[in-house]
Amino acid sequence: MNTPHPTHDLIGIGIGPFNLSLAALADSVPGLRTLFLDAKPAFSWHPGLLMEGTTLQVPFLADLATMADPTSPWTYLNYLRHHQRMFPFFFSERFLIPRREYDHYCRWAADNLPNTRFGAHVTALHWDETADAFAVTHRTTDGTTHTHHARNVVLGTGTQPTLPHALTPLATDTHHGRILHSADYRTHRTTLAQLDDVTVIGAGQSGGEVTLDLLRTQDGGGHGGPHVRWLARTPAFAPMEYSKIGLEHFTPDYTDYFRNLPDTTRDHLISQQWQLYKGISATTLADIHDELYERTIGGTRPRADLHPGVEITAAHPENNGYRLTCHHRQQNTEFTLHTQAIVAATGYTPQRPALLDPLLDLIDLDPRGRYQIDAHYRVALDPRITGTLYVQNAEMHTHGVGAPDLTLGAWRAATILNAATGRTVLPVPHRTAWTTFGAPTHQPDQPTHPTPHTHTAGTPQ
User: Fold this and answer.
1) Do the beta carbons of residue 406 and residue 61 sit within 8 Å?
2) Dist. CA 214–CA 226, nearest whole Å
3) CA–CA dist 288, 238 (Å, integer)
4) CA end-to-end span of the chain, whole Å?
5) 199, 342 in Cβ contact below 8 A?
6) Strand 310-318 vs strand 321-328: parallel, antiparallel, or unpaired?
7) pLDDT (tens digit, 9 = 90+) per residue, 124-183?
8) How many angstroms separate the CA atoms of 274 and 346, rounded?
9) What are the phi and psi torsion angles at 267 (to 5°)?
């Protein structure tokens, strides 16, 4: 049954790192009524990729709060203090923290914040004209239905694992554990390590980490563990851009520049920037190389193959495995491979959740069916709606490569919080990069020329 609730200032749907950041920052705003809902029983962050030894790709300062409010009680450093790990962390001299600890940090915040609710599956979002607010309907684990009202709603339902088109027909229970996305790798890790041949697809960080982990299951003689094959469409297994100037693409300055480009330019630019957000850390590439080097001591051939510039065009089940038809993009040639299992580290795609269906006719989508999003992450809606719908991590097409990156998480949350409250709750910086991404808007200061004068004897020149 429906249970009435007071109107909230803001409701967040989905509790991943980005909406969790918003929940953490909102917790410090006196009098602000917020609520964050998630269907999962508890917070979890990429559980299938929480292997030992893996780290975040961004510094620990890109936590839930620090980049917007370093005095927040929900920073990573305060988490360390609560868990008596400050001195061990200090002596470890880590800038990139273990991925498993980041997950534990977020769970600590999610479990202790007063405005988060798990086990709350949001089934519908619609505009209630009578209440002049959004109505958010959710069902709890005991089957009870509740409806909350809010003037502002922030959609943070995340992205969905994406398989290559050729593998989609095989994503069935029949092939469970043999055709899988890297998001489920850890679940099937032990079984995969016992096979004779495993193929990994994708030249991003996840593909590199899965490849490295499978290589490490091979024994010192190179006979145990599976033969590991690594395929990628990209022309190289290339490192992620990590130079200090290159990283300025993950600043609010670049976001603002990108947002003001024409739609066609933005779409083309994202396709050219894969190394900014789809590359592999240099450390992971070096570790893979070291593993292969160890396996060739004494002239032994490694039980591994690396193939860049290759895409799978078809996949068919065969006896004890799969036959893959592959296309080499540069040579324009086809060849066939045989494998027992495929791990597709092929990324994630934003999807419009079904809970938006009651509101769909009132959302102003672009010609490609995507949200139209302004500088404050507000979705364009029918003028009849006086409330505001925000999105997090669904705006790469409008805001650029920083959308899924944790670096901008707290800054974006602060931007949304300021817009939703109509005041500056948390000040955000006006200049964040040395780079001028667009044409200069003013001429640089001209050098001042000294006034000519006559040298007098005895005066230093």
Assistant:
1) no
2) 7
3) 13
4) 91
5) yes
6) antiparallel
7) 999 999 999 999 999 999 999 999 999 999 999 989 999 999 999 999 999 999 999 999
8) 13
9) -60, -40
